Amino acid sequence: MKIGSKEALQKRIRELEERLEESDQLIDAIKAGEVDAFAINNTENSEIYTLQSGDYAYRILIEEFEEGALNVTEGGLIVYTNPYFCKLLNKPYEQVIGSKITDFIHEDSLESFRELFQKSFEVGCKGELNLIGENGPIPIYMSLTSLQPKLPTVGIIITDYTEKKKTEDVILKYQEHLERNNNELKVNNAELASFVYVASHDLQEPLRKIQMFASRITGLEYENLSKSVKEYVGKMQQAANRMQTLIKDLLTYAHTNKPDYTFSNNNLRKVVEEVESDLSEELYSSGAVIEYLEMCDADIIQFQFKQLLINLISNSIKFSQPNKPPHITIQSWKVHGHETEKASKVSLVESYCHFRISDNGIGFEQQYSEQIFEVFKRLHNQSEYPGTGIGLAIVKKIVNNHDGIISASSAPNQGTTYDISIPYRKYN
Q1: How far is the C-alpha of 213 from the C-alpha of 188, rounded, in Å?
Q2: Cβ count within 10 A of residue 61
Q3: Looking at the domain covering 260-423, what would its CATH class be?
Q4: Tell me: the pLDDT tens digits for 79-126?
Q5: Dihedral of the CA atoms 399, 405, 408, 409 (nearest 10)?
Q6: Which CATH number does the domain 65-160 belong to among 3.30.450.20, 3.40.30.10, 3.40.50.11890, 3.30.390.10?
């Protein structure tokens, strides 16, 4: 119809108003359940939707559902099942439909199922059960809902828990493995404690006697000894002294534990000054100089951190270059956790203290930067640089006790730099 005149336009408006009113009435009727079909007009054709087509769409959804769907009578008879449940049981539809649901419930779960089934008539309920499978029980999660009063049946949805149980089994085995390791660790710690006791008493006592008698020989009978005997006694004293140093370092390493020690906030400059005082003789004899740069405070186990500094400064003195006095630079500063990538490796805290100690010593190849922190790991012969190879292992352990990280960067004859990051504790 060509719309041109005023009368034609008004007529068109009335037609649209009537159609709109009819549509409103149809929508109200659908909402009230008074009609079971309605049409939707498109530009090209019309589509009819009925309650039957809605039921069909719902049926398709249930049929394609990747979970088991059942409809069971009050007596437990299966009057409907979707294909997935048959697939789960690996049984044809004909063997499932019309059977009792209890025929497929594993005997270990029968009592639990009956309780859930009876309870479902009053309220929806859920639970974990086992079905009877060809290769053993099939773990499932079952949800039951009574369809009364519309239908005298119970609707059941079944979820396969096989993969979930496999994951739980893996986690359980891992937990059992972890528990065994923890028990072994307790035994090892007990053995370590016994070793510490032996080292501090039984080993040191005969060692002291060896040193004492060797001293008597060299003191009272030295002039009467042959040249070879003097050499042997001297080597014996050197070996005894190395043994004493080794026992001392092992005891320090064994006692460097975190539990039961208290953290406190300390100004690192004061801590370094105390260490400098303790090492005054070594610093004087070697001509070493300690240079302080920026220093901040840190949350530390004070006596352990002092041991860390003693070991690092002593290393710088020991591994100094010939005819070149050690020059040690120490600095620390506060860093916010979001400022560098390294912060995320320290701890989930807002800030941490970054501590750096550098020297001008002989250095080492960078490829050994991790190995130097291992117990008994040495990069030089005993004759060149005496030591037990435990000093830096103690440093590493102390840093771990502070929930921190340590790294070393070096090059031959270019000195060594140690970077230590320690989180600030939560009470700050």
Answers
A1: 36
A2: 11
A3: alpha beta
A4: 888 899 999 999 999 999 889 999 999 999 999 999 999 999 888 899
A5: -160
A6: 3.30.450.20
